[in-house]
Amino acid sequence: MQSPSLRQLDIFAQMVAAGSIARCADMLGVSADDIARDIGSLEMRLGYRLFEDMSGTVRLTPAGRKTAQAMTLLSQDAPEDWDETAAPAQAPLPPPAPPRQTIMLAAPAPIFGHFQDALSAFEAANEDIAITLDLQVQSVTDAAAALREGRADIAYFYALEEPAGFASRYGWSEPLSLYVGAAHPLAQADSVSRDDLAVTPMLALERHNPMRHIVEDALARGRVRLGPPVLESDDMFAVMTALRAGKGVFAAFGALARDLGRMDGIGRLPLDTQLPAIEVRQALGPRAAETPAVEALAEFLFL
């Protein structure tokens, strides 16, 4: 696999297929603790829980079922027929339901975590509509391509400002913050300057991770330059371990930043300048006006 994040997604798929952490560990030839660590790290990166309980027969949360439906790794497993239990069903399949209108929604996974309850409520109130997710979109380029190619009806994406030549509307902003461990020399500072940061080693996501590019663009706009990276990893447990050891500074926003702010031994740096916030924006496909349900869902998600 190309990166720890893809490994975690693969383990999530194996957990769904195995039905229990013990069976999954046996299938993969690793320990149950290793499985729990990877699932926990994936949940932290996504910003929501995937399983109700990791003991015994595992059960997917509503968000976990939606995530599984969106994964290419599991597309051949008829996700619309899954129930809440992750173990493969042994009973015969029920008669096919009447066809439903499908709305394709593209968004970064942490943004899906922001409005998963709204999506569930919309589907419950509109039984003739099914919402399918694409969790790969991150930037305006991703969103524009997904809408243009018909892979999405509604797209959410990260941006630093309203993109030129691409119709979208502002949803909300995610503050960007810098985090260090209690052992770091800057942890006790009353105020941290750009000069302080320029000589401070950086902890970063892997270079191919779109979230890293968004963070780096925001730091560049805020004229903040960090020292060279001492760790580049999508494994959040590795990042947290390095933070607590005082090895560097890590920039984060959204659900990941909120989780880091709650961790023992990790704190947010008091900067003497405000960093640019990351905007979350919504855009609709070119034929959205011809589909009332798409416009209705887009408005509902803003309530």
TrEMBL record:
LysR substrate-binding domain boundaries: 99-301
Pfam families found in the cross-reference section: HTH_1 (PF00126), LysR_substrate (PF03466)
Family classification: Belongs to the LysR transcriptional regulatory family.
GO CC annotations on file: protein-DNA complex
Name listed for the protein in its UniProt record: LysR family transcriptional regulator
CDD domains documented for this protein: PBP2_LTTR_substrate (cd05466)
Keyword DNA-binding tagged: yes
Domain HTH lysR-type: residue ranges: 6-65
InterPro entries: LysR_HTH_N, LysR_subst-bd, WH-like_DNA-bd_sf, WH_DNA-bd_sf
Positions of the UniProt region annotated as Disordered: 80-99
GO molecular function annotation: DNA binding; DNA-binding transcription factor activity
Swiss-Prot/TrEMBL keywords: DNA-binding, Transcription, Transcription regulation
